[in-house]
Backbone:
C-alpha cells in the first residue's frame, strides 16, 4: 500500500481553517489570535526545514552529519529545560545538569535500542536513529525539566525544614529524602500516565503514523510498545540523575544548604 | 568521649563578627545577648557549621572540620528560635523508644505525641523542639531564645528542666536571650555581642 502524498494546496486548505479560527477568536476578543498564528507559522516553517534536513541526511547517511544533528537536538533540549526552570542553578550548572542528564539517559537508551532491539544496518541508520532519539529526547526533556523544577522549588519552600533537620544531625540525604522522592515522582508521572492510558484513552502518535504509512497494525503496535517502554526508562534515568546531581549541588562539602546557588528568574 | 567537653571558639568570624573567641566549660551556661542584627543567630549557625565562617571551633579535643558535618551537628546541637515540624504527627519526630514521661516535666501532656502537628501552639512547639534536640544526645547545646513564646510559669518550668539536664549531662551551653533578667537567673556568665566583637558583662 502506497501512502497518499499531500499536495501543498491541500495543506493550504487546513491552514485556512486556522486563519478562520484566529479571525473568530479576534472578533470574540479572547486574545489568542496572535500567538495562535505565530505558532502555526512556526510549525510550518520548522517542520518544512526539518523535512529538508532529513531528506538530505537520509540520502547521505554519513555518521558525521547524523551525530551533528543529534548534538543540535540535545543542545536545544538542554536550553528548553533551562528555560522552564523557575529557579535556575547559577552559572554553567543551569544548562549543565539538565543537559548531561538527558545526554546520558537518552543517548544510552537510544543506542541500546538501536543496536540490541531494532538492529538496522548500519545501527545508526538515520531513518531509525533520528526519530527514536527525537522521541526519547522530547520525553526525557519534559521529565528532567519537571523534576528539576519541582526539586528547586521544594528546596526553596522547605528551606527552614531542611536546615532544622540538618541541625538535628541528619545527613543531607536524609534531610531532603522526601523532597527528592517528590521531585522524582513529578518527573515520572507523565510517562507513567501515558503508559496507563495508551491504547484506551489515546492512540499514540507514532503508531498512528505508522498505520497511516501502511504498516500492519500488529507491527506498529510492537514499535509503539518498544517506544513507550524505552521512553519511560530514558525519562526515569534522566530524572534520577537530574535529581541526584541537582540536590547534591545545593549542599556544599560541609552539608550546608546552599540556596545561593540558585537564581530566581521571577 | 571524655565527659569534660568544653566548647571553644578561636577567632571565629561570620558576617559582621570578627575574631570572636570564647570558651564554655562543661556544665557551664554562657548567656549571649546583643541588639537585634548583632549576629547572635549567625554565630550559633556558624558554631553548628550551617554557615561558612573563619576561625576554628573545638568540642573537647575534636575540631569541627575533623568530623563529618552531620556528626558535628548531632553533638553540637542548635535549637533554633522557630522550630520546624515536617511529619503529620508529633511522635514521628521522636525516636520510637522515647519515654513519654519526659513530657510532663516540661508541662506537656503525655498524649501530645499522638497529636497532629497542626494542633500545637507555638509554646508547645518550642518545648517539644527542646525535648527533640536533647533526645538526640548532644554533647553541647546552642539555644536561640528557647523560651520566647512561653508564659511566665512555663518559662520557669522550662528553665528548671533545661538546667537540670545541662548539669546532669555536663553540657557546655550558649544561651541567647533578650531578657537580661533571664540571663541573670540561668547563666554562669554573660557575654554581649557588640559591633564586631564580644564583650564580657
Residues:
Amino acid at each position: 500500500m502506497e501512502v497518499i502524498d499531500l499536495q501543498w494546496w491541500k495543506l493550504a486548505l487546513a491552514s485556512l481553517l486556522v486563519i478562520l479560527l484566529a479571525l473568530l477568536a479576534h472578533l470574540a476578543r479572547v486574545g489568542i489570535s496572535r500567538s495562535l498564528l505565530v505558532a502555526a507559522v512556526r510549525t510550518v516553517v520548522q517542520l518544512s526545514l526539518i523535512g529538508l534536513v532529513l531528506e538530505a541526511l537520509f540520502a547521505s547517511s554519513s555518521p558525521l552529519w547524523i551525530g551533528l544533528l543529534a548534538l543540535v537536538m540535545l543542545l536545544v533540549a538542554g536550553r528548553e529545560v533551562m528555560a522552564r526552570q523557575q529557579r535556575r542553578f547559577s552559572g554553567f550548572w543551569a544548562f549543565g545538569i539538565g543537559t548531561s542528564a538527558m545526554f546520558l539517559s537518552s543517548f544510552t537508551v537510544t543506542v541500546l535500542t538501536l543496536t540490541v532491539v531494532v538492529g538496522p544496518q548500519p545501527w545508526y541508520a538515520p531513518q531509525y536513529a533520528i526519530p527514536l532519539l527525537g522521541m526519547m529526547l522530547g520525553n526525557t526533556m519534559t521529565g528532567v525539566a519537571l523534576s528539576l523544577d519541582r526539586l528547586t522549588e521544594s528546596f526553596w519552600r522547605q528551606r527552614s525544614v531542611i536546615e532544622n533537620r540538618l541541625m538535628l544531625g541528619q545527613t543531607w540525604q536524609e534531610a531532603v529524602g522526601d523532597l527528592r522522592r517528590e521531585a522524582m515522582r513529578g518527573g515520572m508521572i507523565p510517562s507513567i500516565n501515558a503508559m496507563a492510558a495508551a491504547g484506551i484513552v489515546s492512540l499514540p502518535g507514532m503508531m498512528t503514523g505508522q498505520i497511516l504509512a501502511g504498516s500492519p497494525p500488529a507491527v506498529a503496535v510492537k514499535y509503539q510498545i518498544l517506544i513507550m517502554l524505552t521512553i519511560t526508562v530514558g525519562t526515569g534515568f534522566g530524572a534520577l540523575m537530574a535529581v541526584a546531581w541537582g540536590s547534591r549541588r545545593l549542599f556544599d562539602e560541609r552539608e550546608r544548604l546552599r540556596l545561593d546557588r540558585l537564581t530566581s528568574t521571577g | 568521649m571524655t565527659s569534660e567537653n568544653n566548647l571553644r571558639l578561636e577567632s571565629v568570624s561570620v558576617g559582621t563578627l570578627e575574631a570572636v573567641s570564647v570558651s564554655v566549660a562543661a556544665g557551664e551556661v554562657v548567656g549571649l545577648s546583643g541588639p537585634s542584627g548583632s549576629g547572635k543567630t549567625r554565630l550559633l549557625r556558624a558554631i553548628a557549621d550551617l554557615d561558612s565562617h573563619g576561625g576554628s571551633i573545638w568540642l573537647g579535643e575534636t575540631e569541627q572540620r575533623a568530623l563529618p558535618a552531620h556528626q558535628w551537628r548531632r553533638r553540637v546541637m542548635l535549637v533554633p528560635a522557630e522550630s520546624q515540624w515536617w511529619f503529620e504527627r508529633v511522635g514521628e519526630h521522636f525516636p520510637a523508644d522515647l519515654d513519654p514521661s519526659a513530657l510532663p516535666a516540661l508541662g506537656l501532656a503525655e498524649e501530645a505525641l499522638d497529636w497532629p502537628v497542626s494542633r500545637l501552639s507555638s509554646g508547645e512547639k518550642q518545648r517539644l523542639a527542646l525535648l527533640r534536640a536533647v533526645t538526640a544526645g548532644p554533647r553541647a547545646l546552642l539555644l536561640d531564645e528557647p523560651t520566647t513564646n512561653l508564659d511566665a510559669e512555663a518559662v520557669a518550668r522550662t528553665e528548671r528542666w533545661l538546667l537540670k539536664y545541662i548539669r546532669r549531662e555536663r553540657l557546655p551551653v550558649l544561651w541567647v536571650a533578650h531578657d537580661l533578667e533571664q540571663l541573670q537567673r540561668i547563666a554562669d556568665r554573660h557575654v554581649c555581642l557588640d559591633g564586631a566583637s564580644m564583650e564580657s558583662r
Notes: Residues 217-249 of chain A form the longest helix (33 residues). The beta strands of chain A are 87-89, 262-264.
